[in-house]
Every structure is written in C-alpha cells, then in structure tokens.
Design brief:
The radius of gyration is 24 Å and the shape is globular. α2 crosses α13 and α2 crosses α14. β6, α8 and β7 form a beta-alpha-beta unit. A five-stranded mixed beta sheet has the order 2-1-3-10-4, sandwiched between helices. Strands 7-6-8-5-9 form a five-stranded mixed beta sheet, sandwiched between helices. The protein has about 350 residues and is of the alpha/beta class. The two termini are about 45 Å apart. Its main location: periplasm. It holds the Pfam family NMT1_2. This is ABC transporter substrate-binding protein.
C-alpha cells in the first residue's frame, strides 16, 4: 500500500517542522505495527492473548472448537478465538486471503483445494465418520412396515422405486452406497434434488418425497417432531462410520501461516484435542449440552444428545497414511473429487500436536 508523506497542516506538500514529526512517528508506527500483526493473524490483546480467527460451518463437527472456547481451553493456551461462518465454497478462499487462520474443513473440501494447488496443510483431525441420517415419512414407514430397528437390508429393499430427496451430490452418493451395499440399484430410486436440507424436510412433510438423507440433527429432529422415522444411521450403515469412511473433519491452515506462527498452531490444536478428549468421555453432560445448544440453536436436547453421539470424537488429533487412504477411498466413492486428487505426506502433519497426541 502506498502512503503519502505529507503531514496534516502542510501547505502545497511542504513538510512541517521536524518537531511534530517526532511526536507523530511513534503513534503512526504503533498503528502500522498493530495493523500488520492483525493482518498476519498474530495480534495480541491487552490481556496478553493472541487473537486468531477460525472458519467453521455451523454443523455438529464444530463441537470441539466451540467447547474449547466455552470451557476456556483456548484461553488456557493463550489464545482468543473469533469464529466466522464459512461454507464449502467460501472456506478455502477465506483461508487463502488470511481472513481466517484456521479452517475446520471436510476431507472433500480439503482435498478439492489441494487438487487446485492451494498450499494448505491438515494439522489435526477434529471428528471421525459421517453423522448421517436417512429419514422416511410416517406414511411410507407404515406402508412398508419400517421402524428405527428394521434391519438395513429390509430398509434398502423398501427404498427401491421410492422418491428420495437429496440436497447435494455427496448425500445422493452416500445414499447410493447404502443401497448398493444392501443389494439395491440406486438407479431404481426416483431422485428429487432439492436446494437445502430444510427443503428436504418441507418436501417430506408435503409428501413430495418418501425419504431424504442429510447430516444430523435434521433427520432426528424430523423424527422428534413426529413427521418421520430415522431408519438408517452410521450404526446401521457402517459405510458411513469412521471404520470405513475415515476422517470426518480436519483442522487446516496455510503453509505460509504455519511457517510464521508454529506456536499459535500448536496452541490451537492442543486446545481442540483437549476438547475432543472431553467429548469422547462426557457426551451428554451439562457442559457438552450447553455447547451443543449454541452450535445447533433451537434443537431439542434429546436430538442434540443423539446427534453428538453419532460422531466419533478422537482422543488424539493425530493422522496417518492409512487413515488418509481410507478417507480418500470413501470420498472418491462419492465421485466428489477431480480425477487424480490425492493427499500426500506433505499435505498433513502431526508435528503441531501435543507430544502425547502425535502417534
């Protein structure tokens, strides 16, 4: 950025005497220094905390980050965290521009960015598996004698020749995996593409579709309101669970940020790992539920508790080559990545994790 050297009060660009310059210079330097620190994501507040901004997408995978903030884990590490809502289309650009220093991102989003040669690095896994729910209307459930306990194969057979709602290519593919695993051709389903998960819910209520699939808590909320029954989740559909699908969400930063702020990165993932440890062992307790209510406002406690339980919260944020191989196999099975997309050992690291969580 270019700066004019003419001072306030000068005439025709002629400088004033040196004395005012000496008075103003320290103040100008202070403002400039503060701006530079802020732009680099390394500004320090008067209380000695380092301020960083994280992009999150407002779903259940935000739980460890919001818990780390609410429970004081970030503050204990010397960080003050600001949250910015990002989407699949805005997260990577926000990270590149420096408006966020960390991004809680899906493996699909992360790998897609790598395929575009964006210099990002995954520095911790923050959630495992895919907390999906497949919910059918009560009318459809009654007609096909389906309940929440109906075996997966019977559910899949009932969905053949039905009208299924999807709001993304990913959820359609995930439903397809479930159907194929249980001997049903996804091509027999009459797919109805809708603009959002909320539109899925409305279409189910109006009878436009027989069922839909999306991430929790919406399917469980539909069931809780008496408008449908969840007939498949990761417990019944293992292809959606961590054992087969791998990583569900990872913490990402740019290589340039990490090169200058290794200390902040270590503090950030240490706090997230502490929060995940708590989530893994205290699901449903008052602290967790208080955070869940903030992450998913207006959702009943019973639904929140069940949704949180569907995510496998890792006690360690560490990753390995086998985990990424599994994750990429799942994402590729959805057809969500460009041909040749991969994650190499240069694209992820455990070196910022606490010593006990690196293996």
């Amino acid at each position: 950025m270019a700066h004019r050297n003419t001072l306030p009060g000068s005439v025709g660009g002629t400088s004033l005497t040196r004395r005012p310059v000496r008075v103003l210079a320290p103040a100008a330097a202070l403002v400039l220094g503060s701006a530079l620190l802020s732009a680099c994501g390394g500004s320090s507040d008067s209380d000695g905390l380092t301020s960083v901004t994280v992009g999150s997408n407002g779903n259940i995978f935000d739980m460890p980050l919001k818990l780390a903030d609410s429970a004081g884990y970030f503050r204990k590490q010397g960080l003050k965290v600001k949250f910015v809502t990002t989407t699949a289309s805005t997260g990577t650009s926000a990270l590149q521009s420096g408006s966020v220093q960390f991004l809680n991102n899906s493996p699909t989003g992360f790998t897609s960015a790598l395929a575009k040669k964006v210099p990002e690095v995954a520095i911790a896994v923050s959630g495992l598996g895919n907390p999906l729910g497949l919910v059918v209307s009560k009318k459809f459930a009654a007609a096909h004698k389906l309940t929440a306990e109906t075996p997966a194969a019977q559910v899949a057979q009932a969905l053949s020749d039905s009208k299924g709602g999807v709001s993304s290519a990913n959820t359609k593919a995930e439903a397809g995996l479930f159907l194929k695993a249980n001997g049903v051709d996804p091509g027999k389903v009459k797919w109805v593409t809708l603009p959002s998960a909320s539109a899925d819910k409305a279409a189910l209520s109006s009878g436009q579709i027989d069922w839909f699939i999306t991430s929790e808590p919406i399917p469980l909320q539909v069931q809780n309101e008496g408008d449908g029954i969840v007939v498949a989740d990761p417990k019944k559909a293992p292809m959606w669970a961590a054992a087969q699908a791998g990583y569900g969400e990872v913490v990402v930063a740019t290589k340039s940020y990490l090169s200058g702020h290794a200390g902040a990165a270590k503090k950030f993932v240490a706090a997230v790992q502490e929060a995940n440890n708590y989530l893994a062992t205290h699901q449903g307790d008052p602290t967790v539920m208080d955070v869940a209510r903030k992450v998913q406002q207006g959702v009943p406690d019973e639904v929140l508790k069940s949704s949180v339980a569907l995510v496998e919260w890792p006690k360690s944020g560490s990753m390995d080559a086998a985990g990424w191989t599994k994750t990429l196999a799942f994402v590729n099975s959805l057809g969500a990545l460009p041909k040749g997309a991969e994650v190499s050992s240069e694209n992820w690291t455990n070196k910022y994790l606490p010593a006990g969580g690196q293996s």
